[in-house]
Amino acid sequence: MEAILFSTIFTAALGYPYYRITRPKPVYIDDEPTSREIRQSPEYRAWRNAVLRRDNFQCVYCKATDNLEAHHIYSFASFPHLRFDTMNGLTVCRYHHTLTPNYGSKEKAFSQQIINS
Ligand SMILES: [Zn+2]
């Protein structure tokens, strides 16, 4: 009730609704639509297959042959010029992918460190 009252007063005073200020800005994660499109492209699939083939379809850490993923040593998001470079790829199982230094939320800090060095 207090919030509604405050909102009404705010709107009256400034001429635009309170929610426009309090509503949080959308947060975009790294995997935005364009990046998702790239990951579904034939070029990306060719890169992934080339990396897996070179590593004999085995995780380079544990030799697992299931749930294989192609890891970008230099992150997909921050090093676009290396996205399709097979030398920048490493075959890893899903588990070992999560342990790589730039996986998921670790990406930004990892890349910043490289860019600043
Ligand atoms: Zn593994």
Mean pLDDT: 84
Helix and strand pattern: HHHHEEHH
Beta-strand percentage range: 5-15%
Radius of gyration: 22 Å
Shape: elongated
How many H/I helices? 6
Biggest sheet strand order reads 1-2
Low-confidence stretches: none
The helix/strand class is mainly alpha
Characterize the largest beta sheet: strand count, sense, and whether it forms a barrel. Answer: 2 strands, antiparallel
Count of discrete structural domains: 2
User: Roughly what percent helix?
Assistant: 40-55%
How many β-strands, per DSSP? 2
Features:
mainly alpha, 44% helix, two-stranded antiparallel sheet, 117 residues, binds zinc ion
Report on the structure:
The chain has 2 domains: about 1-30, no CATH class; about 40-115, no CATH class. The mean pLDDT is about 85. Strands 1-2 form a two-stranded antiparallel sheet. The protein is mainly alpha-helical. It has helices at about 1-15, 20, 35-40, 40-55, 95-100, 105-115, and strands spanning about 70, 90-95. The chain is built from 6 helices and 2 strands, in the order ααααββαα. It is elongated and about 70 Å long. About 15% of the residues are buried. Helix content is about 45%, strand content about 10%. The site of zinc ion has 8 residues, from strand 2 and helix 5.
